[in-house]
Amino acid sequence: MTDKDTGGVRSTTTDSSGLFRFLDLPPGNYSVSVRAPGFKGYTEASITVEANQTRDVGKLSLEIGNTSETITVMAEAQPIQLASSEKSRSPATS
User: Fold this and answer.
1) Which residue ranges make up each domain of the chain?
2) Contact (CB, 8 A) for 39 and 18
């Protein structure tokens, strides 16, 4: 895991079920890279962690292949309004 704001890097290993965790991360923008012998590398480039938040990056699948190949996924999360019960709706189209 790389902190995109500071360049700091952390590493971890999965457990027997493939679960991995990074504890006590400061708020920031991160990317996660997953590597395993005999598989293509995988990078998820846009993960935002806020204070006191637990994030799940979902199920990651590695493809069999050359370890020099890497798959990169870039996505931006849309903020969710939690402080208000107000609903937002797109204008009606004709």
Assistant:
1) 1-76
2) no
SS3 (DSSP) at 56:
coil
Helix and strand tally (H, E) in the chain?
0, 4
Task: Quick: pLDDT tens for 21-62.
Answer: 888 889 999 999 998 888 888 998 888 999 888 888 888 888
1-76 has which CATH code?
2.60.40
Residue 89 has pLDDT above 60, yes or no: no
pLDDT at 87 > cutoff 80: no
- Whose CA is closest to 46, among 9, 68, 73? 73
Look up residue 57 and give its two tokens: 């990056």
d(CA 3, CA 26): 9
* Cα–Cα nearest to 42, from 52, 57, 23, 25: 57
Q: Is-above-0.85 flag for pTM?
A: no
